[in-house]
Every structure is written in C-alpha cells, then in structure tokens.
Amino acid sequence: MFRLPFKKRVPPPPPPMIPPGVRAYAIGDVHGRADLLDALLDDVFADHARRAPAALRLVFLGDLIDRGPASREVVERVRDLVASDDRVSCITGNHEEVFLLALDGDVEALGMFLRIGGDTTLASYGIVDEIYGAGSDAELIDIMRARVPADHVDFLAGLGDRIEIGGYLCVHAGVRPGVPLDAQQPADLRWIRQPFLDHRGAFGKFIIHGHTPTGEVDVQPNRIGIDTGAAYGGKLTAIGLESMQRWFLSVG
C-alpha cells in the first residue's frame, strides 16, 4: 500500500522574550484623552507594584494629540514622565509629524492637521476662534507658534521612531515587509497600514504598534495592535510584557 511520506510538524517559534528582570508596558494612541491616560497610568503603576520586583520600562506609541479634548495636558504629562525617568520613552506618531510640519510653516500640512483632528489640539492651547478667523494660513501658523510652548515643540521634535526591548520592536504604525528593520523609513514607521497589517510572515522582531484603531486588541502571530479607539469613544489600552508573558490593561 502506497503511503505518503511522513512530514514532521514544525513547532511554532517560541514567544519573544523580554530581558530578565525587566517588565515593560506600552501604551497605545492617547489622542488627547488625558482622562483615560491618567486612569490607565494609575492601573499600570498599580499592576507593576503588585507583581514581583522588576525594572520598569514604559513606552508611549505616539499620537498623543488630536481628536480628544486635552492634547496639551497629554503632551505635558508624557513630557514630564520622559524627563523624570530614563526608563520612560515616547515614539512619534503621524499626528505629531503633521503638527510639527504645520508649526514649521508647511501650509499643506496645516490643512491636513485641521482635517485629522488638529482643531481640538489647537483648542487645548487656547486657539479657537482664530482657527477659521485668521486672515490667512500664515497668520494662523504665527498664532500657533506664539501659543504652543517651545518646550512642547522641542519635546515632540525630539521623539524617535522605534524602541527595542528584547524580542519586541515598538513602533507607531508598523514596518514594511521585506525591508530589514534597521533600514525602515520614518514614513512607514509612522504611516503604514495594509502592507504591514496583511503580512503574516516574521518581521525579525515581534511588533507592538498603534495607529490603526480596532475595537479590541489586535493579536496576530507576528504583531499586536493596541490602538483600541480612545479617540472615538473607545478604550485606551496598555500591553504588559515580562519574560514570555503578555497581558493587557484597558480603561474607558
């Protein structure tokens, strides 16, 4: 009797590891929801305190601003955390990119900024009537430069695009499949969607990202998305990582 040759099942690769003695948390897109951010930070720090002692790493995945009502407060909160503790990091998102381009005088970027929720960011800096009452785009940009504190601009302009922790790579949007991780371009790290979201192969590191809102955490074999729609009345989510373990904390 003819038999097909036995094909040995290849086991899946082990989950990525966090370095021994380290516990990491990553927080998804806040989008001006200072209320949710405060509640989630309370939960993160309480969760860390009730577990066994470990060194804390905390990463914000970008898009601190726009859409929600308290972008200024969020920027201040995250800036202060990053400044006070070198174990806290923040990645730039596409919304921060557009905001900075507008502040730099890019009129096209200003238009995009207002279309993607930047009006609420300006309102948090006390710019309301001037958004559509300014005599020109250049006048509005001058008002923005006068009202947005220089230390906020410097903080946002100094953010990087990636944070590696053990077998994980934290980015805002994702990575381009087929491109080595050390050759990824900022445009992809901040903006990419489908080529990344549809890819099922390995990326070289397990990717933790935000950018694409989903109703619940998006867990895939090669990535986890934690933008759970805080900007749209959904939850704000953090992922906890330790050794080979993962868990989630959400508020909202």
Q: Key terms for this structure?
A:
252 residues, alpha/beta, Purple Acid Phosphatase, chain A, domain 2, five-stranded mixed β-sheet
What does the model show?
This protein is α/β, with parallel strands linked by helices and 252 residues long. Helix content is 37%, strand content 17%. It contains 9 helices and 10 strands. The strands form 2 sheets. The chain has a 5-stranded mixed beta sheet with strand order 3-2-1-9-10. Strands 4-5-6-8-7 form a 5-stranded mixed beta sheet, with no helix packed on it. The longest helix has 18 residues. The radius of gyration is 20 Å and the shape is globular. It holds the Pfam family Metallophos.
Q: N- to C-terminal separation?
A: 62 Å
Looking at this structure, what is the CATH superfamily?
A: Metallo-dependent phosphatases
Helix content: 25-40%
Strand content bin: 15-25%
Structural class: alpha/beta
Query: What is the makeup of the main sheet?
Result: 5 strands, mixed
Report the top-level CATH class: Alpha Beta
Reported CATH architecture: 4-Layer Sandwich
Q: On the 0-100 scale, what is the average pLDDT?
A: 96
Number of strands: 10
| Poorly predicted regions | none
- Tell me the overall shape: globular
Annotated CATH topology = Purple Acid Phosphatase, chain A, domain 2
> What's the total helix number?
9
Report Rg. Answer: 20 Å
The topology string of helices and strands comes to: EHEHEHHHHHEEHHEEEEE
Multimeric status of the protein: single chain
Record the strand order, biggest sheet.
3-2-1-9-10
Overall structural domain count = 1
Domain Calcineurin-like phosphoesterase: 24-215
Protein name: Serine/threonine protein phosphatase
InterPro entries: Ap4A_hydrolase, Calcineurin-like_PHP, Metallo-depent_PP-like
Pfam family, one: Metallophos
